[in-house]
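Lecture 7 notes: from sequence to structure.
We start with the chain below.
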Amino acid sequence: MIRSLKRSSALMFALMLTGCVVQKQTPAPVEPTTPTTPQPTPEQQPEPVPQPQPVPQPPKLKTINWSASVQPLVANMVQSAGVNPGSVLLVDRIKNSTNGALQSDKATDAIQNALANNGKFTLVTPEQLAQAKQALGLSADDSLNSRSKAIGLARNVNAQYVLYSNAQGDVKSPTLQMQLMLVQTGEIVWSGNGIAQP
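Predicted structure tokens for the same chain:
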């Protein structure tokens, strides 16, 4: 019975489809047009290609001669009376308190180079510094721009002194300030100022 119902419904559907009459549609009317003669146009000159503008030169960065800038300060510090020969010195990274970006790594390197083989101090090596930073949980890139961090790190590497340096004022001609601090007490045993040399 279900089979006959399926057949009869299919047959009924086929009959309905054949009974639908499709109405014939007429195409839209086409209007004839007459061709027009093209008007002669005056020859157009191609627009000139604009010349590229010259690229402006970037501002020249004024470089500072860090070696010449720190050498007199370091020489003065080494000659100071309150320093014990053979002491271990931690050179803190120079702090930038200027009104712009400063090459603090170059300045710190110049201080360390000026202190190398001075006969008065033994410098903390970069390897010792990295190990001490790791032991204290500081990142390797930490610049120690606070005196308390620098003194804590100096105690960890058994340094007797910390050299704290600061560049301040105009970045084109900063004033350098250096302070030699005794790690045990935090006392400043030497201080010096100088203007950076171009």
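Points to note: The first helix runs from residue 2 to 19. Residues 180 and 190 are 5 Å apart (CA to CA).
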